[in-house]
Amino acid sequence: MTRYALNRLLVGLATLLVASVIVFSVMEILPGDPARLMLGINATEDAVVALRQQMGLDQPVVLRYLHWIGGMVVGDLGRSYTYSVPVLELVAERAAVSLPLAILSLLLLTVVAIPVGIFAAARRGSAADAATMAVSQIGVAIPNFWFALLLVYLFAVWLRLVPAGGFPGWSAGPWPGLKALLLPAVALALPQAAILSRVTRSAMIDVLGEDYIRTARAKGLPRAQVLWRHALRNALIPVLTILGLQFAYLIAGTIIIENVFYLPGLGRLIFQAITQRDLIVVESVVMLLVASVIIVNLIVDLSYAIVDPRLRAA
Amino acid sequence: MNIVKTIMAATALASLVAWGAPAFAARDTLTLGVVLEPPHLDPTAGAAAAIDEVVYANVFEGLTRIGPSGEVLPALAASWDISEDGKVYTFHLRANVKFHDGTGFDADDVKFSLDRARADDSVNAQKGLFAQIDTVEVVDPATVKVTLKQPQGSFLYNMGWGDAVIVAPESAETNKDKPVGTGPFRFDNWAKGSSITIVRNDDYWGDKVALAKAEFRIIPDAAAAIPALLSGDVQCFPFMPVGDALAQIEADPRFTVVIGATEGETILSTNNKKPPFDNLKVRQAIAHALNREEIIAGNGSGLGTPIGTHFSPGNEAYVDLTGTYPYDPEKAKALLAAAGFPNGFKATLKLPPPAYARDGGQVVASQLRAVGIELELIPVEWADWLEQVFKNKDYDLTIVSHTEPNDIGIYARKDYYFNYDNPDFDKVMADLDATSDQAKRNELYGQAQRIIAEDAVNGYMFQLAKVGVWDAKLEGMWHNAPVQANDLTKVRWTE
Amino acid sequence: MSDLAFAAPPTGAATFLRRALRNRSFVTGLAITALVALVALVSFFWTPYDITHLPVAERMKPPSASNLFGTDHFGRDIFSMIMIGSRNSIAVALIAVGIGMGIGVPLGCAAAARGGWLDEAVMRFNDIVFAFPALLSAIMITAIFGPGAVNAIIAIGIFNIPVFARVARAGALALWPREFIMAARVAGKGAARITVEHILPNIVSLLLVQGTIQFALGILAEAGLSYVGLGAQPPMPSWGRMLFDAQTRMMVAPHLALFPGFAIVITVLGLNLLGDGLRDLLDPRLNRER
């Protein structure tokens, strides 16, 4: 197991490194001069040159890459050109919105999808199963941002249960913050839940067809126990695989959903930084998101080892 | 269907109202919504209007300041004398002025600020304001003498710009993060991406302000602004991105809605040196093809004043020249044919991000198509716009709102992106610089407006409206925007 | 994943057709997809209104007999906009699937045929591409080239590459040990020739099913990109962009947001049903079960 884990870890690190080179080189060829943008339309040429020097934009590319990546390792992400504060500070502020949002929707997603999938599998062929599958089929087809718009209209504008957008900040206490994240999390989670519930269902159906499950039932073990203890455990591998993939969708999804709800998260930061040509912020945020996808996939890979005894032995 | 819509809208509104405003124990705090987050807070090192919208008149003060109607008022200079030849300005400074960090203010700070702004390595975005300054001398701690290279009628006005505020040598370098000025408010906190807070300065030299605390919350567009306003989270939007919801808000007695004027001439900027736009007939044809009413209506709230030249209708020197080339598609076609384009031609239209450009551009393209000019719409970010259009003049047409006050002088700049060159106009500008008599200046401004209108330098469309919305119990907010600022010095709650 | 099965040996077109017509997912999916394709085709010749003309005075009219879905903020007919917008959705998603297949399938097949370092390299490449969600690639591409429909195609296309590489590789790997391949090898055929002559025809059904699914995902992704302003640009109508324009006006005119959303859901639903149906039909193992 340690060899498997070590192997995955190395692959993960290599992926990170290559990804960082890609991100940095892409940002290098961006057009537009951040110095000119900051000074605005009536700025004189020498003012722009002076600011470029001040920002260190005149150094060679390789040096800047090494500086960036080296800093990243020790937690120094550099300084934002436009805000002239440490990028880490900016990112931490925004991550305090995005991360809870992603986690909340991941939670919602699992809590809704897996029981529904198991339920449908257990009652396979019934009207309830058919209805669940029909609803999930539609759910898969709904774009999350449109779903979000509908939710805003229904719950915020019409029923006024939650705010329509914006974020009060955690300083106002955990409850107002959570309340502001609830609708976005639902909008993110439900379309993905439709996918996961379908996967759970078919994985469960596959497992329930296996001989050992029939044997267990024949031995007189209670139906619920067979379902939850024996079947679910073995159905978890495909479910985990999809969940790992879905995390990438959730990350990308938060960027869009933050735009619907005006949440000051990483997604809005990245759009803002792009329009202001704040390269170092774009680089850092993209890298951070990419890294989180890689890390989650690594965790999924490692958890196979825990779930699947065959891999554990290897 | 319409009744259903009305009921739905009413329900929506009523439901939002019911959220309830947070209770204010003592009403001396205010939360304002602003559209753009400033990149930093030093008005002497950036052109972004968003900086001035927070700090102008509140945190920083200059020798003079611009008042609510665009007039020049004394600020850190209590008074001034102008020499006979109009070249020497002697400013008498106020006493007992302190910067927020406790350091004193005197003539040395003025000399430092002006010299810093016009230095070679200055990053001041409006260096042109200081171009005529020859020397700045400290006469005594309370007196500064500024000598100009030649008389400049707009010098006192220029000194009132946000870019010309007085800063202290001790804090000049850190003003971007921690602005230290002399104003009635002190900078308190900046939560990046969400809000900026300023608090009352109890050591202020002048009248103390009524508000103890003001928070500028960054709210980028209508979909977020409207709920924030209706819920009471934000009590004031000096410049509200209201879009199509204006009627709803106007009907709500809890709010004051003020439609004011801005300095934002929204124009179809034209590359005057690039064929076929170097042909006057082509530019006249474009002018005749533009239907200003439709362009304004297509911009959302349907607000905006049609203009026929590059001047604010709120200014006393304004001349209404919208009739110079009235909307007349047939005439436009005839002019195009006369210019050698009987079947029209193709061109590009570069559109920066604001809605007036992106939405307005579609209406303009549809109107020009009707006379045979096929426009390809190219959306660009501000950075690309600055690089391609403004700096490299690589464009045919673009739409942009020129929000700098009193900026008709840009038509005399040879390297300006319009690529416009008319000696007659330059002469008027030179005369203006040498004239300080207001009536004569207005007369010259009129001439300048006529020249560029007749030359159809750009497609003159409309003056951006300032839709101010605030709690009906709030008073003292500016109605117009002669400079981009949210002067809170006279703002108070009436209850 | 679990769909590593191959097309049953042809049992005659008539039987296949009969089975197809009995498959409800397939029939419904095909009908919806055909309808969407038809709408897109018709839009080239006819729409109820000319959307290049902007009758601003008619803006934001609710649905009525003359404008079935109402008008937008420029007074354009939303029904006509949706008709023309379908072209953009279909074109972007289809080309993106083409890119994914065109690059991913050769990669996957080569990895399976050669094994060893090439296989390892392809898999690592997959890992890296998978780490960039389509939206992030789109953001980076847009940052360089500016927004536009082409960026959306590239971003979604890149995202599709590892998907097809994996499916092709898994399918090919399962085929290589089979007897008829062995026979071909013994007959002296090279790996490339075997791949073209024997492997590809046998994984076509897998690729077809995956292609349908990626097509549906592509439509969703394109809508998302256009919604945040990274996809198709005005005046080209696109469903995502229409939703963006609708957002700030929803309190006044909810119909602006409803119809483009329905268009997306129906199209994606149709494609997903078609994909499910195809899988049922082409997968002999599932046939027995259902």
Kindly state the mean pLDDT of chain B as a whole number? 87
Task: Name the shape of chain A in a single word.
Answer: globular
Radius of gyration from the alpha-carbon trace of chain B, in angstroms? 24 Å
What pair of chains forms the biggest interface?
Answer: A-B, 46 and 47 residues
Which homologous superfamily in CATH is the superfamily of chain A?
MetI-like
Oligomer: heterotrimer
CATH architecture of chain A: Orthogonal Bundle
| H/E element sequence of chain A | HHHHHHHHHHHHH
User: Could you tell me the number of beta strands of chain B?
Assistant: 19
How far from one another are the termini of chain B? 41 Å
Question: Could you list the spans of chain A in which at least 5 consecutive residues all have pLDDT below 50?
Answer: none
Describe, in plain words, how this protein is organized in 3D.
The complex is a heterotrimer of chains A (314), B (495) and C (290). Chain A is an all-alpha fold and 314 residues long. Chain A has a single domain, classed as Orthogonal Bundle (MetI-like fold), CATH 1.10.3720. In chain A, 79% of the residues lie in helices and 0% in strands. Chain A has 13 helices and no strands. The longest helix of chain A has 39 residues, at 223-261. In chain B, 27% of the residues lie in helices and 23% in strands. In chain B, the strands form five sheets. In chain B, strands 11, 12, 13, 14, 15, 16 and 17 form a seven-stranded mixed sheet that branches. Chain B has a four-stranded mixed sheet with strand order 1-10-9-8, with helices on one face. Chain B has three domains: 3-56 and 180-261 and 467-493, Periplasmic binding protein-like II (D-Maltodextrin-Binding Protein, domain 2); 64-174, Dipeptide-binding Protein, domain 1 (Alpha-Beta Complex); 262-465, Roll (Dipeptide-binding Protein, domain 3). Chain B is α+β, with helices and mostly antiparallel strands. Chain B starts with a helix and ends with a strand. Chain C is mainly alpha-helical and 290 residues long. Chain C has a single domain (22-41, 77-289), classed as Orthogonal Bundle (MetI-like fold). In chain C, helix 2 (24-45) crosses helix 10 (255-282), helix 3 packs antiparallel against helix 4 and helix 8 packs antiparallel against helix 10 (255-282). The interface between A and B is large, with 46 and 47 residues.
